[in-house]
């Protein structure tokens, strides 16, 4: 945060989780749960979506399409919840409910409508009364609250000119709650996003908050302040079991790895990116909350570096600045299979898979599971080698997937930005594009949800 002003950004997944799971009165929350899992809700869903339960909506296991994927969806347009549902009402389910997991904003939109129907209150009023106000979260609100609860001190007509002057004369502006401006990059340029775009993420990403408020809210949800019963909290903060018996290392937006007590939740909304992680083991007790006013930033690696700077064994233990490692939610073999599938879907050929663990066994040595996947696009790689043939030493691209001594599985790779330094490559734009591609491939491999 820094400075005197409170920069607050949309807390996409954080807000979503709070709205669904946080009930001051557990019995009240269970009443909504029973309502949603019965035929009353199913009666209002298209027949093509089958009969998902509220719990499957919460698991993101409903198979209901995400309205944001509709080509006609425009985040600058003002939709009502029913209009958002209508965008996908004629689409078939992506899979049978309870058999797979895929994040869908439509899931949480429907949960928001369930809360309204069960409580007799608007979603806005229910969240404010039972979660935000009891915790005294003054920098957490919806966009429609800005006129009465925020104190912007910027003249949009004079961008870049003399800003923030009222704090010298008016007490409410000394340390104000002030909405940040979110940005989206398009064709190499940043464009400001209207704050009203968050309204279209009803019950999924429509809440705005500060890093401090998110951390306080998270404590209220994880402890016994908002969710009184341990069994109710346990539904959220551990891998979930689908109706077909499959255990998935994720629940309601949270993802879990093999690091004891670790969980993370992240994502983007129009103009903003957010990340929250918890290390809950008694020996760790670290929480990292990151917010940025630029869309589609993956803050995972930065957050893990911050945690490791506090306690070294929270990270992978690698020391090179040019080495980037992200913890996978899956075992080594499954992670390798997922990486191969992601590459195949992207049309990127895999040239080789080296099993160092198997090679160690052949010479009667022991090595924890370690595999290296080699892949790349010859057209792109050749372009770089035409600039500097020595770059062939680091091409094709490769990712090492390995299990450490604590049973955690990591995907490690070299940062491609080092190529421009080491080999004097002048085509920095191509290297940046390759870096973005590689980051996306690793993210889709390591995570349950596709961000």
Description of the structure:
With 451 residues, the protein is of the alpha+beta class. The chain has two domains: 6-292, 3-Layer(aba) Sandwich (Beta-lactamase), CATH 3.40.710; 317-446, TATA-Binding Protein. Helices cover 35% and strands 19% of the residues. The chain has 16 helices and 18 strands. A hairpin with a 5-residue loop joins strand 17 (397-403) and strand 18 (409-414). The chain is globular, with a radius of gyration of 23 Å. The model is unreliable at 1-40 (pLDDT under 50).
Helix fraction?
25-40%
* Backbone structural class: alpha+beta
Strand proportion: 15-25%
Quantity of strands, as a count: 18
Q: Which CATH class of the largest domain is shown?
A: Alpha Beta
Helix segment tally = 16
> In one word, what is the shape?
globular
Spatial arrangement of strands, main beta sheet:
9-10-11-12-13
Which residues form runs of ≥5 with pLDDT under 50?
Answer: 1-40
Oligomeric nature of the chains? single chain
Rg over C-alpha atoms, rounded to the nearest angstrom: 23 Å
CATH architectural category of the largest domain: 3-Layer(aba) Sandwich
CATH topology of the largest domain: Beta-lactamase
The CATH homologous superfamily of the largest domain is named DD-peptidase/beta-lactamase superfamily
The overall average pLDDT, rounded, is 85
Domain count, please report it. 2
Largest sheet properties:
5 strands, antiparallel
End-to-end CA span: 25 Å
């Amino acid at each position: 945060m820094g400075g005197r002003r409170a920069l607050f950004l949309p807390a996409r997944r954080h807000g979503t989780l709070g709205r669904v799971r946080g009930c001051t009165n557990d019995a009240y929350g269970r009443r909504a749960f029973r309502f949603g899992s019965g035929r009353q809700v199913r009666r209002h869903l298209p027949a093509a979506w089958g009969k998902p339960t509220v719990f499957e909506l919460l698991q993101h296991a409903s198979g209901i399409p995400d309205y944001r994927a509709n080509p006609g969806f425009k985040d600058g347009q003002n939709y009502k919840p029913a209009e958002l549902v209508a965008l996908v009402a004629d689409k078939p389910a992506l899979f049978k409910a309870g058999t797979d997991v895929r994040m869908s904003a439509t899931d949480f939109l429907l949960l928001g409508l369930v809360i309204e129907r069960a409580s007799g209150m608007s979603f806005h009023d229910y969240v404010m009364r039972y979660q935000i106000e009891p915790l005294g979260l003054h920098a957490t609100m919806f966009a429609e609250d800005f006129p009465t609860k925020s104190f912007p001190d910027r003249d949009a007509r004079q961008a870049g000119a003399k800003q923030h002057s009222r704090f010298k004369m008016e007490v409410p502006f000394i340390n104000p709650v002030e909405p940040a401006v979110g940005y989206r990059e398009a064709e190499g340029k940043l464009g400001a996003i209207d704050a009203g775009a968050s309204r279209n993420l009803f019950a999924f990403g429509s809440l705005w908050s500060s890093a401090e408020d998110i951390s306080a809210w998270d404590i209220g949800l994880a402890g016994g302040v908002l969710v009184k019963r341990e069994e109710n909290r346990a539904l959220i903060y551990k891998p979930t079991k689908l109706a077909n018996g499959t255990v998935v290392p994720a629940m309601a937006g949270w993802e879990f790895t093999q690091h004891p007590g670790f969980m993370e939740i992240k994502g983007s909304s129009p103009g903003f990116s957010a990340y929250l992680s918890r290390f809950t083991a008694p020996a760790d007790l670290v929480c990292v909350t990151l917010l940025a006013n630029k869309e589609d930033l993956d803050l995972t690696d930065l957050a893990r570096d911050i945690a490791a700077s506090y306690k070294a064994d929270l990270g992978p233990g690698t020391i090179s600045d040019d080495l980037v490692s992200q913890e996978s939610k899956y075992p080594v073999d499954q992670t390798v299979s997922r990486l191969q599938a992601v590459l195949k879907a992207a049309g990127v050929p895999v040239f080789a898979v080296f099993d160092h663990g198997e090679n160690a066994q052949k010479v009667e040595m022991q090595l924890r599971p370690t595999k290296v996947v080699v892949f790349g696009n010859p057209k792109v790689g050749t372009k770089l080698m035409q600039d500097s043939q020595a770059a062939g030493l680091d091409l094709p691209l490769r990712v090492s997937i390995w299990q450490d001594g604590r049973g955690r599985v990591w995907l490690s790779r070299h940062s491609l930005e080092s190529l421009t330094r080491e080999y004097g490559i002048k085509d920095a734009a191509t290297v940046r594009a390759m870096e973005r591609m590689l980051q996306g491939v690793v993210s889709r491999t390591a995570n349950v949800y596709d961000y």
